[in-house]
Amino acid sequence: MDLRIEINETPQEVDYQAILAPLREYNQAQTGLIGTEKFAFLIKDDAGATQGGLYAKISGQWLFVELLVVPEVARGQGLGAKLMNKVEALAREKGCQGIWLDTFSFQAPDFYRRLGFSIFGELKDYPVAGYNRFFMQKRFDLDEHNASHTQP
């Protein structure tokens, strides 16, 4: 079979799926893990319209927070912390060993630090010079380790 590389500057969903399918097959063969579970905690207004919320996926033993948005009018009132507490409870219930997410320096790294997250990776000057993207985690096994080593 002859193979060649072509650039497609307007890829379609079918192109994405064609690349994703063999990668999923390989990953499943290596790990035994099949698929992901998806969850959303929605912030609704009086009319029932979604104004924000949290979207997460569980793959293996980790929950990934893909999206977290609190409407501007509700920021600073504890709604983001409530969402994170709910998703953490869900992750623990599902047997996850932790939660991970990414955020930008202009978004909420301090918010996540206050919730017990730590940075495990950083991409400097992204999305543009002067800003950074942080990859953060909260490991539940570290909670248990720290609790067992505290003085009474």
From TrEMBL:
InterPro entries: Acyl_CoA_acyltransferase, Bact_Acetyltransf, GNAT_dom. GO terms for molecular function: acyltransferase activity, transferring groups other than amino-acyl groups. Residues 1-141 form the N-acetyltransferase domain. Keywords: Acyltransferase, Transferase. CDD domains: NAT_SF. This is Acetyltransferase (GNAT) family protein. It comes from Pseudomonas extremorientalis.
